[in-house]
Each structure stands twice: as structure tokens, then as C-alpha cells.
Amino acid sequence: MRSFFSTLLLLNWGLLLVLLLLAAGVIFVEDLIRPEFRPLIFFLYVLIAIFGTFYTSITIARKVTDPLSLVERKTKEINAGDFGVELSYPEIRELANLTISINEMARRLKNQFLDLTVEKEKFNSLLQNLKEGVFAIDGNRKFLFLNRNIPSSIISENSQFKDIQNSVKNRELLQFIETKIKKGLEGRSEFQEGNHYYNVRIYPIKSNEIIYLYIGVILDITEDRQNQLIREQFFQNASHELKTPITSIKGYAETLEYRLNLPENSNEKKFLDAILRNTDRMVRIVEDMLTISRLENHKTILQSQSFPIADLIQSVADSVGVIFSKKNQNLVFDVAPSLLVHADMVLMEHVLVNLITNASAYSPEGSIVMVKAEETFDRYRIQVIDQGIGISTADSERIFERFFRVDMNRSRKEGGTGLGLSIVKHIARLHSGEVFVSPNPKGGSIFTFEFPKK
Ligand code: ADP
């Protein structure tokens, strides 16, 4: 393999040699040629020189342009995704190096392309075999992708590259997706289609703060819903069934105590007192269970009205005053007397009693509990701030579950039922709001109850 430069030299020298040999031949035979033929010989010589030069130039040019046009064709094929056969090596070294590089590039691209195809296939089959329905929406509100687990009653089949407006059949789902896309937010919701209940989540995918994709996940939660209904039904039945016998035990125990008139430090009196104490606890538990059942079944229809929250806080403070003075604790307020909230007053009283008595129960003697109420432009916020034992991050979600206690013995000692915060959570939900706990920077906890203004 020669370099372009040496090929050029070689061909030129070759041509020169031929011309010199011809010239030498002509000079040698000049005397033998008749003078009238000499111009013809000279003309032939010039003709050979011209055609020789022409032929040499074409040969050189083709040695360069042929491989170059092959390279050009190959790069076009690669560009179109056709990696095909490798280029053969031309004679000129520089061009051969270029061909080697192009072949190598094609080989590498082909491997990368194959890897990507395999990865894409893996990803595709994973998505298609998920139990959840998955979809992706682009910036133009068109479906980029949908897996096969999305029922056609919710989103029409073959909706890929079609507008969401014409493809999403379930109105609730469409409204949810459109709101989230409009606000550019992630979100979660539930919707119903026929006899089935679904949970949907949507996430914006951002790059440099620009959203270019939304990923949605739909999960059929009908079975969970049914199980939840069975659990709620059981909870409701159990509380109803327990109420009558407990009330009757309490009644008989009180009658016995009254009739027997036992001496103060006798064992029988202690036993009867224990029965009465535990029956009272059971009565409280059953009452809380019934309250939860009522809230869960939406039997409690909100009786919303506008009232000064400061008055309600004051009245709750009066009713729990004994508890606070027993522990030498202070209850202070930070509430504007003019602040009116629009809510169910009876349920709000429940919330305040639960949060304030908890704040006292889980705080040391002599500590301060503050109740704060304020409004933002679209929400009401009520906070109960204590200086008590606090709640770990791990427990801060779980304390709102029914019967969950961080410390069972302490809760029992304080006469707790383990249901108070669960009731508060239900009331928050009924007001389309939420309740959560966060650590008090000065030690203790801050319970925040928030709900939107209507
Ligand atoms: P309980 O009747 O046991 O107080 P709740 O549902 O009201 O039931 O509270 C659940 C658990 O949350 C309590 O047992 C306690 O462990 C924890 N808790 C509630 N309020 C507070 C608080 N202010 N500080 C620390 N822990 C708390």
C-alpha cells in the first residue's frame, strides 16, 4: 500500500519515462524518416503526450474519488441505520486509514445500536408485563406510550400518538391528568370505572426545569377497597355488638358497688373499682370506635358554619382545665379573636380535645402547650405545640393509624384508646384537609390541622 504522494510521483515518472523513451526512439530513427513525415511524427508524439497525461490524471483522480464516493455512500447508509457490509481497503494509504476508521465506527455503532435495541426490548417487556397500567404523555398532550394493562374502558386501545382528550374515556381520570399537566405537578388520585376502583399517580419528568414528559401509573385497587370495606364493616359491627354488654357490665358493677357499700380498703372494693375502671376504658374505646365508623361511612354529614375559633378553643380549654392543673401545665393561645373559620363546630371540638389532651398527656409536668390558629389566603391552620417527649420520624405517619401507640404502657396509663388521632385524621379528610406532626425545634411536637376555605 502506497501513500497518495508516492502514487502520484510514480505515475508521473512512469509517464515521463514513456515520453522520454518515445522521444529517444524518434531521435534515433529521425534520419530514416522522410522529411515530409516528420511533422506527422511530431504531431503523433504530442498526441501521445496529451493522451498519456490525460490517462494518468484520470487514473490518479479515480484512485482518490472512487474510494471517497464509497466512503460517502457508506456514511449515508450508517446515518440511515444500515450498518451493512464493511468497506474494502483502497490502495492509497491515507484513504485506507479513513476506511479503517469508518469500518470501526460502523462496527461500534452497530454494537451500540444492538445493545440499545436489547435494552429497549427488555424495558418494553418489563413495562408490558407490569401489573400496573403505565402511560407516557408528551408536551403536546399526546400519548407516547401505553402498556397493555390499561383497560380499554378507561383509555381507548391504540391511543399511541393520539391526543389525550380523544383517548381517555374516563372523565374523572381525564380531568385529573389535565389539571396536573396544567399545573406541572405530580399527584395521586382515585377514580371509579364500572365496578372497579383505580388509583392513579402522575409524575412530570423534568430536565433543566422544563417538563418534557409525564409518566402515569394506574393500579386496580378494587380488591383492597373490598378488603377495606370488610374491615370497616367488622370494626363497625364489633363496636355495635360490644356497646350493649359493656354498658350493662358497667351498670351492674355500679349497682353492686352501691348496694354492697364495701369498706374502703377491702379487696372486694379494689376488685370492683378495677372492674369499673376497665369498663370505663372499654366504654371510651367503643365510643371512639363508633365515632370512627360514623366518620368512615360518611354518616357524619358536615354541618359547616362560620364561628370564632378563639371561642371554641377557650371552651375546650375550660373543659380540659382540670387535666392541665393536675400536671401544673400551662395552656396558652395565639389566636386572633376575630378569626372566623368555616367548619363543623362539633367535629372541630373533637379535634381540639384530642390534640390538646394528647399534648398534656405526652408532656412533662410544668410544661407549656400552645394553641395557634391562623388563616392564609386559601386555608385555615390550627396548631397544637407541646414541649413533650416528641415523636420519631419513623412513627410520625403511623400514629394516625387506629390503635397505634408509640408506647402502649404510657398510653394506657394516660387512659388513651389509641384511636384519638385516627379520629382527627378522619375529620381532616371530611374537611378536605390534612393533619400531620412535625418536630418542635424547642423539643416536643407540633400537630398541624389544615383545611381549605370553601
Ligand atoms: P392515645 O389514646 O394512645 O393517645 P392517639 O391516637 O391519640 O392515641 O395517639 C396515638 C399515639 O401517638 C399515642 O399513643 C402516642 O404514642 C403518640 N402521641 C400522640 N400525641 C402525642 C404528643 N403530643 N406527643 C408525643 N406522642 C404523641
TrEMBL record:
Q: Which InterPro entries match?
A: BphY/WalK/GraS-like, HAMP_dom, HATPase_C_sf, HATPase_dom, His_kinase_dom, HisK_dim/P_dom, HisK_dim/P_sf, Sig_transdc_His_kin-like_C
Question: Which PROSITE patterns would you find in this protein's record?
Answer: HAMP, HIS_KIN
Keyword Membrane assigned:
yes
Which GO terms fall under molecular function for this chain's record?
kinase activity
Its annotated compartments are: Membrane
- Group of enzyme by EC: transferase
Q: Which domain of life is it from?
A: Bacteria
> Pfam families this protein is in?
HATPase_c, HisKA
Question: Its catalytic activity?
Answer: ATP + protein L-histidine = ADP + protein N-phospho-L-histidine
EC number(s) per UniProt? 2.7.13.3
**Domain (HAMP): residue spans on this chain:** 62-114
Name the UniProt key words of this record, in alphabetical order.
Answer: Kinase, Membrane, Phosphoprotein, Transferase, Transmembrane, Transmembrane helix, Two-component regulatory system
Statement: the UniProt record of this protein carries the keyword Disulfide bond = no
Q: Where is the Histidine kinase domain?
A: 237-454
| Positions of transmembrane segments | 39-58
User: What is this protein's record name?
Assistant: histidine kinase
Give the organism, scientific name.
Answer: Leptospira kobayashii
Q: From which lineage does this chain's organism come?
A: Bacteria, Pseudomonadati, Spirochaetota, Spirochaetia, Leptospirales
